UniProtKB/TrEMBL annotation:
Top-level taxonomic group: Bacteria
Swiss-Prot/TrEMBL keywords: Cell membrane, Membrane, Transmembrane, Transmembrane helix
Family: Belongs to the CPA3 antiporters (TC 2.A.63) subunit C family.
Gene that produces this protein: mnhC
Name of the featured protein: Multicomponent Na+/H+ antiporter subunit C
Membrane spanning stretches: 6-22, 29-51, 71-96
Pfam families tied to this protein: Oxidored_q2
């Protein structure tokens, strides 16, 4: 089972890397989300899928009567989900602001590099004092 999950993590990582290097900002955000899911699956896989030994032992020489789940990978994954959700929202806001400023999301276009490509009103330019 671990081999199948390791292969899945590899496929997710390679797909995420392909999306992130494509040059489109929307694909970058999708690649970022996919990379976060791959990392969560990697942490889950590293936390052992079988019940070989219990992760927590009370007194020396005693063990729980039933199999227990490893609590550390679960806590790490829960924290990573919350952080990746916040980072995804931050990236979507940056994506919106980038589109509002440049009117393009393709990083290969020349308009993407100019800061005033979407500035039609000139509101950010300082007023000249004619007095």
């Amino acid at each position: 089972m671990e081999h199948l999950l390791a292969l899945t993590v590899g496929i997710l990582f390679s797909g995420a890397l392909f999306l992130m290097l494509s040059g489109e900002l929307v694909r970058f955000v999708f690649g970022f989300v996919l990379m976060g899911n791959a990392v969560n699956l990697l942490i889950f896989t590293a936390g052992r899928l079988s019940f070989v030994a219990p992760p927590l032992i009370g007194k020396p020489g005693t063990a729980p009567a039933t199999p227990v789940a490893n609590a550390l990978p679960q806590a790490l994954i829960l924290t990573a989900i919350v952080i990746s959700f916040a980072m995804t929202l931050f990236l979507l806001i940056l994506l919106y602001r980038t589109y509002a400023q440049t009117r393009t999301l393709n990083t290969r276009q020349a308009d993407f590099l100019s800061e005033s490509a979407g500035d039609d009103t000139g509101a950010d330019t300082p007023e000249k004092d004619h007095s």
